[in-house]
């Protein structure tokens, strides 16, 4: 197993937007379809004869057998099995592309590059040369004018002259797509869509990701979670048959030693000062934290929606509070998928 001890030193993380999206921006997703330029993401490109095998030995999912028509979630772990990054990966021509939280992109690219050694692989931060755009709602007809074919299933990837179009999991019963391509071509294509779709804040995408139950590792929660704590085994971010990668023994042990006692849940809180990394406290055991905020986004009807990692036992009775035992109360909402304990 590769022992990796080089640190990830992220650039400062942006705070939650002071001014949340207007109600009309959320409504546009449901009424007419919307797009949002996603400047919260960065892109790392891996190229070379050994790029796939190198990444296969670094990430939690199978990269070696990733075909051109698919995309996959994956995590990048420390030797202790704690997540340093989460990402969506796919093949773009001769390149394997990694979509990562922008605040972590430079340090993840640097860390991965340190361990290439003799492999024929080169990783570059391509963030400045590409644009990342999210689409949600009734968007298929406008997208069909830009792409010859549209993805017909979740994590299906279609390549075109203007880049990649990937179907990602629905959220709040609305279909969603990611378009990643050369910046000039994407911006030109978006200009043709301005009259057909609403352009809304990228914060709306964060809210949609939360309601899709897809956690994203950012600076505030670096090395806090084994992948199963953020439901990566449920949403397809781990391949338990692929073999060795940093932290693999810890991740496998967590999976097979018994029931996983900590998971990620969806919650709403009527507060404004919420950020990833804030601890949670349970009413019946206020002396120690029972969980941690993973992701946050302004909610459509006020307050904050969030994904929170929490002891499952804390969801059975009592109340859970933000920051302290007498802090704001969390209201838990159903995830769009069943956790293993719920499905059994």
Question: How are the elements arranged and paired?
Answer:
Layout (H helix, E strand, L loop, with lengths): L22 H9 L2 E4 L3 E7 L3 H6 L14 E7 L5 E10 L2 E7 L3 H10 L7 E4 L4 E7 L3 H5 L12 E4 L2 E9 L2 E9 H9 L6 E2 L2 H10 L36 H9 L5 E8 L9 E4 L2 E14 L5 E8 L8 E3 L7 E4 L6 H4 L1
Parallel strand pairs: 1-11
Antiparallel strand pairs: 1-7, 2-5, 2-6, 3-4, 4-5, 7-10, 8-9, 9-10, 12-15, 12-17, 13-14, 13-16, 14-15
* Tally of alpha and pi helices: 8
State the end-to-end CA separation: 33 Å
- Highest CATH level, the class of the largest domain: Alpha Beta
CATH superfamily assignment of the largest domain?
Probable tRNA modification gtpase trme, domain 1
Total domain count: 2
Describe this structure in words.
The chain is of the alpha+beta class and 344 residues long. The protein has helices spanning 23-31, 51-56, 105-114, 140-144, 183-191, 202-211, 248-256, 340-343, and strands at 34-37, 41-47, 71-77, 83-92, 95-101, 122-125, 130-136, 157-160, 163-171, 174-182, 198-199, 262-269, 279-282, 285-298, 304-311, 320-322, 330-333. The strands form three sheets. Strands 8-9-10-7-1-11 form a six-stranded mixed beta sheet. A six-stranded antiparallel beta sheet has the order 16-13-14-15-12-17. A five-stranded antiparallel beta sheet has the order 3-4-5-2-6.
């Amino acid at each position: 197993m590769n022992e990796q001890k080089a640190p990830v030193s992220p650039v400062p993380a942006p705070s939650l937007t002071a001014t949340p999206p207007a109600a009309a921006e959320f409504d546009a997703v449901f009424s007419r379809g919307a797009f949002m330029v996603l400047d919260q993401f960065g892109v790392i490109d891996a190229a070379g004869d050994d790029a796939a095998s190198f990444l296969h030995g670094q990430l939690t999912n199978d990269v070696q057998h990733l075909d051109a028509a698919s995309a996959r979630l994956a995590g990048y772990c420390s030797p202790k099995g704690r997540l340093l990054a989460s990402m969506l990966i796919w093949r773009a021509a001769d390149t394997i592309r990694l979509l990562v939280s922008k605040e972590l992109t430079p340090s993840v690219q640097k860390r991965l590059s340190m361990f290439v050694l003799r492999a024929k692989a080169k990783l570059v931060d391509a963030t400045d040369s590409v644009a990342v755009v999210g689409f949600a709602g009734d968007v298929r007809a406008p997208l069909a004018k830009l792409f010859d074919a549209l993805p017909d299933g979740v994590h299906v990837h279609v390549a075109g002259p203007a880049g990649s179009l990937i179907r990602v999991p629905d959220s709040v019963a609305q279909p969603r797509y990611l378009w990643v391509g050369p910046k000039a071509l994407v911006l030109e294509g978006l200009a043709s869509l301005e009259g057909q779709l609403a352009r809304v804040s990228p914060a709306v995408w964060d809210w949609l990701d939360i309601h899709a139950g897809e956690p994203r590792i950012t600076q505030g929660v670096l090395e806090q979670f084994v992948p199963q704590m953020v439901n990566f085994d449920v949403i397809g971010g781990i391949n338990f048959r692929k073999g060795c990668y940093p932290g693999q023994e810890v991740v496998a042990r967590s999976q097979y030693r018994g029931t996983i006692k900590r998971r990620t849940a969806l919650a709403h809180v009527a507060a404004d000062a919420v950020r990833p990394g804030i601890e949670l406290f349970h009413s019946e055991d206020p002396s120690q934290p029972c969980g941690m905020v993973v992701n946050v986004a302004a909610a459509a009807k006020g307050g904050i929606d969030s994904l929170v990692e929490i002891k499952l036992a804390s969801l059975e009775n009592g109340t859970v509070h933000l920051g302290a035992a007498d802090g704001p109360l969390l209201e838990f909402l159903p995830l769009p998928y069943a956790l293993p304990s719920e499905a059994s």
